Fold this sequence. Notes:
This protein is an alpha+beta fold. Helices cover 23% and strands 31% of the residues.
Amino acid sequence: MDKYPKNHLKAAVAAAFCFLIFITALPAKENSDTSRIPVSLSIKPNETLSETSAEVQPAAVSKSPEVEPPAPTSPIVEDEWVRITIRKGDSLAAIFNRAGLSPKDLYEIMSLGKDVKSLKKILPSKEVKFKIDETGALAALNYAESPLRSLQIVKTGSLYKAQWLSAETETIISYKTASITAEKPSLYHAGKAAGLSDNMIMQLSNVFQWDISFALDIRKDDTFTVLYEDIYVDGEKVKEGNILAAQFNNMGKTFEAVRYTDASGYSDYYAQDGASLRKAFIRDPVHFSHVSSSFNMRRLHPIHKRVMPHRGIDYAAKKGTPVLAAGDGKVTITRQNNASGRFIVVQHGQQYTTKYLHLSAFAKGVRPGKTVKQGQTIGYVGATGWATAPHLHYEFLVNGVHRNPRTVTLPKAAPISKSGYKRFKTVTQPTLAKLNSVAGNSNYAYAPSED
Ligand SMILES: [Zn+2]
């Protein structure tokens, strides 16, 4: 709001005033239509108008006293554009009617084919702008479907032509740092407190999903730093872009990621030495946002009243929470028994097996012989078998031996190739230097790499 250019404002206010005079020139019927169906302003100019309206409105009223108080109900004219904010239930026909435009113009525009399809489902709170020629006919129309994309229709000769325009964007690099504390015990809490959006928190958890168990292994004094893009249009932030680099200090270990787009246009995240962050398995087969953290893994078994030999790890989550395949593989068993309840076994290549127990249901199409992809929903959390509360019991086996899926060393995706490494280093160095300076550990940035 504060960034809205002042000159722009003045022009808008002055233009609004011109439009008042324009309204008074309309035939009586249309004039009463206008007052009966007030045209709402877009929020932005409306707010700013009210700040400056004191000096403008009295003049308008004194010149044409029969005109209604204008502020919340009149469209704003700016650079000859009449701006109308779409209301709930609005159609383009209703807006044309309110603006006094002819049904013939509307018909011609709607006949332009697939380019104008989005005009059939215009969205409330978005804006339609018109230019009207001296005969009162429509000269141009602009519909901003999003701050990034608008449909422009211009009359050339006697024909309308439609084209989609992309807004000019500006990318600003932002960063946030945060730490896990007793008051902010999860990635979500700490991220929110630091000012990260839900989207950024999810992106961050995706970047490190192969290294860190966000569901179970986030500890007090863990810290993280995220360097990311904010996308602006006309001085207003419209969305976030990608995470460019991130660092996560988890239980004394530092993980670092930098986004890199190779010469062929493929983008992914890598460690500073060019190792891929991608691995054959994600650490948590349940999304961390669904997992309750206050779950005592060493509790006595509710049925056997003793600490059971526990060969897996448990994720407490609501019944119905999606259970994800930890890696690409083939389903070998979907079955139900007394102890495990409904369970799934997935085989990943020759060496690896994962098991998912106590499910309330199997996902559709998941049965022995079917292949599954990493992150695919294969079932749903439940409390079938020996379980008193809904949770996922997850087991990870390497060559038939149970291993801890949160700490086991996992096969990695291919690193940056030898031939591509020089380019990788050149491109990512400045980003990593920035990350490390905002993370406050600049000595880490240029630590000699291990190889
Ligand atoms: Zn268990």
